[in-house]
Amino acid sequence: MKTRIPLILLLAVIVSMTSCKHKETHESQGLPSIDVATAVVDSVVLYKTYPGYLSSDNSAVVVAQVDGMVLTQNFSGGQFVNKGAVLFTIDPTLYKDAVDRAEAQLASAISTRDYAQSHYAAVKKALEADAVSKMEVLNAESAYEQAEADIKNCRAALHTAQTNLGYCSVRAPLAGYISDSYNGAGTFVNGSGTPVEMAKIFENKIFKVVFEIEDSQFESMVGRDGGIGNKLYRDVPLHFRDTLLTGFKADLVYEAPSVVQSTGTIQLKGRVENKNGELKDGMYVTVSLPYGENPRAILVKDASIGTDQLGKYLYTVNDSNKVVYTPIEVGDVYKDSLRLVTKGIKPDTRYVTKALLTVRPGEEIKPNLTK
Predict the structure, then answer these.
(1) CB of 198 closer than 8 Å to CB of 181
(2) From the CB of residue 340, how many other CB atoms can be counted at a distance below 10 Å?
(3) Please, which residues have CB within 8 angstroms of residue 196's CB and are 6 or more apart in sequence?
């Protein structure tokens, strides 16, 4: 005999199930929808950062090497100047006079030499006819040789005078960007004794990145596997305080042969090309020095990491969809937006990517999984 369920009991069960389902849906709809992502695993190069600065690969001090009043300054500080361009002119009056005197003395010396040469030839011929003594011939020969020596001295003096006159036009020793003038038009300079600095020019095509690394870290990082010749050090990432249009990388080219005893560090230098003219001498830079590779690095979005008095943290999401405050330790930025997490989470951990200021530890959320 079949068992019959009373109709009224069946209706009660249906109403109860519908009510529970409606209650669950209502509660789910009441949870905040929060964007979350899953920590990813990738192979990354490991870096350690060091502070450094840029130094122009080629620079020169513009100097005055003569005495006189500066008549003109033919540039503005900060502009680009070509090699050989006249930057300053110094009053040339005294030096033009010196050239004129030297030229006159040389002309007189040549004339004296010509006479001495003719006289010497004449007395030698007269000696053959016993018309003069040998002593007269020797005297004529000595006078001729002295006249030749005088010409050399006069030519040297003329060269010096011409050189000093040339120094009255102070020229750029190389092409580059020039600083403000230290001694502009209207100032008097005394450059004949010790050259006077007038300005400085910086070539901006190539820069050296200068930084220091502890000697113990040098041995464990750079000193092994071929030193700076290792391919790891061909494209060392550089970071600047201000965001630049160009991403810069350096090629390590120098390691100091000795340790600086006062600091226990070794100086390293890299070479970087100034592609778009954004770099300047003296700029501070952070060098991301590679020292190895992690084939299974855990990465999260850098913007998802918070900072408090205890350090770095993430808001992770557990299996019950509840927010968990999770302290972490981090490494360097990877591919501009990801950050290496060295401690605190596992691969595939879910974490909050947005609304960091609104979620609270222990709060249940409705995860919206994003990439």
Answers:
(1) yes
(2) 20
(3) 63, 64, 183, 189, 190
Least Cα distance to 73 among 187, 185, 189 occurs for: 185
Q: What is the pLDDT of residues 266-325, one digit of tens each?
A: 999 999 999 888 888 899 999 988 877 888 999 999 999 999 999 999 999 999 999 999
Residues in the chain: 371
302: DSSP letter: G
Residue 201 has pLDDT above 90, yes or no: yes
CA 222-225-228 angle, 5° bins: 45
Token pair, residue 16, equals 């109860």
- Range from 2-6, 35-39, 128-132, 334-338 carrying the lowest mean pLDDT: 2-6
Cα separation of 267 and 252, whole Å?
11
Q: pLDDT at residue 152 above 90?
A: yes
Q: Is 324 helix (H, G, I), strand (E, B) or coil?
A: strand
